[in-house]
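wait is this the right file?? whatever heres the structure
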């Protein structure tokens, strides 16, 4: 049984990107040190569960569009509670925090009989709302599933999300379930009630499900994935649809039909340590 961790420069069209490759029993994951971002997870050779934009770039401090971006220590625009001069500050600070476009360090790696695992970390000392240095750790474990765990032991106000881009192949034949029947619609800023726990995406979607359970299933024409989450207080589902996708600098016009983001998030603004994880389990044979 193959079990290995190797370093490489480049993944797909991102030819100069420093990456780690994890291999275990025919499964493979690729992690970029830039952003501490899982870019690819093939549960079996050729069966890619994640989506990465062919127009993604990492130069000029651009976050990589695809895989599993890490949002920390804020989600979306910086929260107004953290920055009293809100409008000005929201424009000044990048969406989804500060670790998507920085280099992470490889701290540890383990090739074991039953798993391969790497631990990355990044220390941030320039947060706009709190003085000090704060360490964020990312542990990625490949077995017959892929577990991605984010941890910060500091008791600071911190939001976080594992902003996973899933490969859908054909969004019109893709379902996500079970989801709570109540969600905050980020597009209208309204709380919406539905009578279904299954979502099929046929328009722009940007929803916060604050009562999402520990397991959600994504069913696509090519594969089914069980998404297990822990430490979350919300699950965010996002697809930009046609018009917004065409405006994004790092997607092709029709890419919106090929992915959906299902994000395990901690959004509550309380000062406490963080442990947030998402496990991807391939259910297809
Ligand atoms: O998670 C959903 C979301 O916050 C959307 O509102 C949308 O902006 C998306 O993330 C992507 O954000 P990004 O900064 O990566 O372009």
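ok assuming it is, sequence goes like this
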């Amino acid at each position: 049984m193959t079990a290995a961790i190797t370093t490489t420069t480049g993944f797909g069209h991102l030819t100069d990107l420093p990456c780690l490759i994890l291999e275990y029993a025919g499964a493979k994951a690729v992690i970029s040190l830039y952003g501490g971002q899982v870019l690819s997870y093939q549960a079996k050779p050729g069966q890619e569960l994640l989506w990465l934009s062919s127009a993604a770039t990492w130069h000029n401090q651009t976050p990589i569009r695809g895989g599993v971006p890490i949002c920390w220590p804020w989600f979306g625009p910086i929260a107004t509670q953290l920055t009293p001069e809100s409008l000005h500050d929201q424009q000044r600070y990048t969406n989804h925090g500060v670790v998507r476009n920085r280099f992470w360090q490889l701290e540890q790696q383990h090739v074991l009989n039953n798993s391969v695992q790497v631990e990355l970390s990044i220390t941030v000392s320039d947060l706009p709302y709190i003085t000090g240095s704060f360490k964020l750790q990312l542990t990625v474990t490949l077995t017959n599933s892929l577990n991605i765990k984010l941890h910060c032991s500091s008791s600071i106000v911190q939001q976080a999300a594992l902003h996973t881009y899933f490969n859908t192949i054909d969004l019109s034949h893709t379902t996500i379930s079970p989801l709570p029947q109540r969600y905050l619609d980020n597009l209208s800023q309204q709380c919406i009630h539905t009578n279904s726990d299954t979502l099929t995406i046929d328009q722009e979607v940007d929803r916060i499900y604050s009562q999402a359970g520990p397991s959600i299933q994504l069913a696509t024409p090519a594969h089914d994935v069980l998404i297990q989450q822990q430490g979350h207080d919300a699950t965010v589902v996002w697809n930009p649809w046609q018009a917004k996708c065409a405006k994004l600098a790092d997607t092709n016009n029709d890419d919106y039909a090929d992915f959906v983001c299902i994000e395990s998030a901690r959004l509550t603004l309380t000062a406490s340590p963080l442990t947030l994880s998402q496990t991807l389990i391939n259910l297809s044979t």
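Helices lie at 86-92, 241-247. so i think its the right one actually
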